Amino acid sequence: MTANLGDLTAFVAVARSGGFRDAARASGGSASSFSEAVRRLEDQLGVRLLNRTTRSVAPTEAGQRLLDRLAPALGEVEAALDMAGSFRGQPAGTLRINVSVSAARLVLPSIVPEFLSAYPDIRLEVIAEDGLVDMVATGCDAVIRYEERLEQDMIAIPIGPRIQRFATAASPAYLDQRGRPDHPRDLLDHACLLSRFSTGAVNGWEFERDGEVVKVDPTGPLTVRVGGATDLAVQAAVAGTGIVHLFEDWLRPYFDSGVLEPILQPWWQRFSGPFLCYTGRRYVPEPLRAFVDFIKRA
73: exposed, middle or buried (C-beta count within 10 Å: 0-12, 13-18, 19+)? Predict the structure, then answer.
C-alpha cells in the first residue's frame, strides 16, 4: 500500500501539535487542508487515526503506532533531502532543538544570533522545557541537556560553559533579619524557596566543600515548577521572602546590582556544563550539521 507523503506529513504534524489549527499555524498552511489530508489517509487505511473533539485532537491506538513508526522515517527523508540540498552550497532548512529552560536562558543567547547571522537560510525553532522528552517523537533534531540526563545511544557535543555552579542567595534585608547561614544545615532554620520537577519530586539542595557533600531538604513558603516559574522564586528572594538556590549565572545580575547577597559560597557545588545531543542516524540534517560545526568552532 502506498500513501501520499504530504498526507503522512500532515498527519504527523497534527498529531504532534494536538490540533489542526496549531499544525496549520506552525506550517503556514490551512486547517482545512490538514483535515482533508488526514481524512484521505484514514480512508485509504480504513482505520481512524485521530480522535477529534471540540477541544483537542489525539491519536487513536492505531494512530499512535503509525506516528511512532512514521516520525523517524520522515526524519530520515528530511535528512536525505537536506543532504541533497547541501550541494547548492549554503545550508538551509529548519532546525528544531528541545532545550532545558536554563540552557535557553544561559547558553543559547551567546550562540544563536551569531549562528543565524552566519546561516541566514536556516530557521531555528527552540522548545524550552525541563521534562524528559522523546526527541524523535516530538520532531526535534537535537536536545540540550545536562550529563545526568544523557542517553547512551546519543551523540553528545559540549555546548556553552564547561563548568557551572549552583549559587545560594537572599536579599540583604532578609539576612539582616534572619541571620546569615554558616553551614548548609543552617538552611533548615530558614525560609527557603523550593522548586519541583515535572515528575512531582521537590528538588533537594546539594552542597560540596573539600570533598564533603551535604544534602539538605529545606522547607519554605514557596515552591515553583522547575523552569517556567523559576523567575518567580528569584523575585520572591529579591523581595525578602526567603533563600533561593539556583544557577550562579542566573543570579549573577542580581549579585552585581546588590539586590541579592551570595551566601555559603565555599559550599557552592560545581557541575559540568550542558551538551547538544542528537541521534547517530546515517544522515544528519544539514541545519543540524551546520549547528554542530558552528559549536565546535566556537
Answer: exposed
